[in-house]
Amino acid sequence: MHKPVRKAVFPVAGLGTRFLPATKAIPKEMLAVVDRPLIQYAVDEAREAGIEQMIFVTGRGKTAIVEHFDMAYELETTMAARGKGMEVLEATRAVPGDIITVRQQVPMGLGHAIWCARAIVGDEPFAIFLPDELMIAHKGGTGCMKQMVEAYGEVGGNLISVLEVPEEEVSSYGVIAPGRQVSDSLTEVTGLVEKPPRAEAPSNKIISGRYILQPEVMRVLEGQEKGAGGEIQLTDAMARMIGTQPFHAVTFAGRRYDCGSKLGFVEATLALALAREDMGDEVRVMAERLLSGER
Ligand code: UTP
User: Fold this and answer.
1) Could you tell me which CATH class the domain 7-158+207-257 is placed in?
2) How far apart, in whole angstroms, are the C-alpha atoms of residue 192 and residue 64?
3) What is the tens place of the pLDDT at every residue in 45-55?
4) What does the pLDDT look like over 168-196, one tens digit per residue?
5) 202: three-class secondary structure by DSSP
6) How much distance in Å is there from the Cα of 120 to the middle of ligand 1?
7) How far is CA 197 from CA 50, 194, 235, 236, in A?
8) In angstroms, what is the span from residue 11 Cα to ligand 1's centroid?
9) CB 128 within 8 A of CB 114
10) Ligand 1 proximity of 113 Cβ (cutoff 6 Å)
11) What is the largest CA-CA distance in the chain?
C-alpha cells in the first residue's frame, strides 16, 4: 500500500511577467477563464482527486487568492436575502482549516517555492499544481490529478503529467527521457532536463504542471544550486531522485491550456465558453460572425 496523497502545494508566488499589465495588481492565478479564476479550477481538480489540504505558496500582492476561498459575508447575506446564487459562493468556500499559506518572500524559482512548504508537507507524498496550466478533462472523463492518483495507486513513487508538443517547442519546457512503457498512458522516466536546446532534447514529452512527489525531494531542494534562468529548478531536483525511487510519467487524457501565456489564455477562454451548455451556442454564433468579418 502506498501512502495516500492528501496534501497539495500550489506555488502562486511568481510575478506573472508574461501577462503584464493585467498582473500588475492582480495575481495571475485570479484571472478568470469565463467565470472561474484559474486557482479555482486547480483546487476543484485537487478536490476531485481526494486531496484534503491545500498549501498555497504565496508572496506580496497575492492575498486575493486566499480571500477567494473565504466566506464573503456581505455577498452571502445579500445573495441569501435575494434567494439566489448561493451555490456559486458555496462552491468556492473552503472547509475551515483546509487552506494553509506560506510565503516565499523572494521569487527564486519553482523549486524554491516548493521547498518553502516543507514543514507543512512533512513526511507525506504530496501533489503539486501549477494553476496557470489549465487541465481540462474530456467530456465525462476524470481530471488530470485524479488520473495521476489512480496511476500512483499502481506504481507509487513519483509521477509527473506529460504531453507531447511539436519538436520546435521543447526548449521552452521541462522534457523527459522516457523509459519502459508500462501501459498506454504510463511510462517510466529515466531522465529530466529543463529547457534543453532542441537538438539535445531527449523526447518531445514535456512536463505539464501536475506532480506527485515523495517528501525526500525537499531534502534535495535544500542544498540545490540555481539552474536554468538563474532559478532553483524543481526539474533539477526531480532529476536527482531518478534511480533512487520509482519515477513515472502519466499522459493526461484531456486538454491542457498554457494560461500563463496570452495566446493560451485566449484559447482556453474560447474553448471553455464554446463547451458551456449555458452559452456555447451563442458563443459559436458570435465567433462565426466575427470570423466572417461582420460586426
Ligand atoms: P512561471 O514560470 O509561470 O513564472 O512559474 P511566473 O513568474 O508565474 O510567470 P512569468 O513567467 O513571469 O510570466 C510557474 C509557477 O510557479 C510559480 C508561479 O506562480 C507559477 O504558478 N512560481 C514561480 C513561484 O511560486 N515562485 C517562483 O519563484 C517562481
Assistant:
1) alpha beta
2) 34
3) 999 999 999 99
4) 989 988 999 999 999 999 999 999 988 89
5) coil
6) 21
7) 38, 9, 15, 16
8) 7
9) yes
10) yes
11) 63
The alpha carbon of 253 is separated from its chain's Cα centroid by a whole number of angstroms, namely: 15
Amino acid symbol at 287: A
Count, residues in the chain: 295
The amino acid sitting at 37 is P
Q: What is the pLDDT of residue 21?
A: 92
Phi, psi of 190 (to 5 degrees): -110, -10
**The pLDDT of residue 157 is above 90:** yes
Q: Is 5 in contact with 212 (CB distance < 8 Å)? A: yes
Grid coordinates representing 142 are 476524470
3-state secondary structure of 207: strand
Domain ranges for the chain? 7-158+207-257, 261-295
Whole-number pLDDT of residue 295 = 66
| Atom 4 in ligand 1: residue holding the nearest Cα | 14
For residue range 264-273, list pLDDT tens digits in order: 999 999 999 9
Alpha helices in 72-199 (DSSP H): 73-82, 86-92, 110-115, 118-121, 144-155
CA distances (Å), origin 19, targets 56, 74, 253: 21, 31, 28
Could you tell me if the CB of 110 is within 6 A of ligand 1? yes
Q: 28-46: per-residue pLDDT in tens?
A: 999 999 999 999 999 999 9
